[in-house]
């Protein structure tokens, strides 16, 4: 099986993870959770959010939650932010929507954020950088590797 940049990074850092593979036709985190038999609040999607000026953001939120753009803007000190279109997200990341992963984009010009709800979890499932591949790892490891900042990004 092909190793993604995200998997190579985890291997190089000695971070334990569990790899899940599924049909690349599945794009939504809630569908991934169903297929893997996991609760939707444990499977996180990575959304590309744009500021009026400055670096684009990767915001990781649970599959069963909705992004609150006003909360994100307030958390990062901007007046207004917006979701990237699919085309913008794929052009900025070089990854397909459904395969966008903060782990695969380290060292690239993105600010990385994790919704506060993740702190209630021990393990989190995120994209491995390719559609049809997700990894489960400790929330603490994800935070340490990505240096993600915790913000209130969703409404409960």
Question: What does the model show?
Answer:
The chain has about 160 residues and is an alpha/beta fold. The chain has one domain: YbaK protein, CATH 3.90.960. The strands form 2 sheets. The protein has a 5-stranded mixed sheet with strand order 4-2-3-5-8, covered by helices on one side. It starts with a helix and ends in a 5-residue tail after the last strand. The model has no long low-confidence stretch (mean pLDDT about 95).
Strand order of the largest sheet: 4-2-3-5-8
Give the helix/strand class: alpha/beta
Roughly how much helix do the residues carry, as a percent range? 25-40%
Outline the biggest β-sheet.
Answer: 5 strands, mixed
CATH topology: YbaK protein
CATH superfamily: YbaK/aminoacyl-tRNA synthetase-associated domain
The end-to-end span amounts to 38 Å
Counted up, domains total 1
Q: What's the pLDDT, averaged over the residues? A: 95
List unreliable stretches of 5+ residues.
none
Report strand %.
25-35%
Query: CATH top level?
Result: Alpha Beta
Radius of gyration: 14 Å
Summarize the structure in short.
With 156 residues, the chain is α/β, with parallel strands linked by helices.
Attribute tags:
156 residues, alpha/beta, YbaK protein, 5 helices, 8 strands
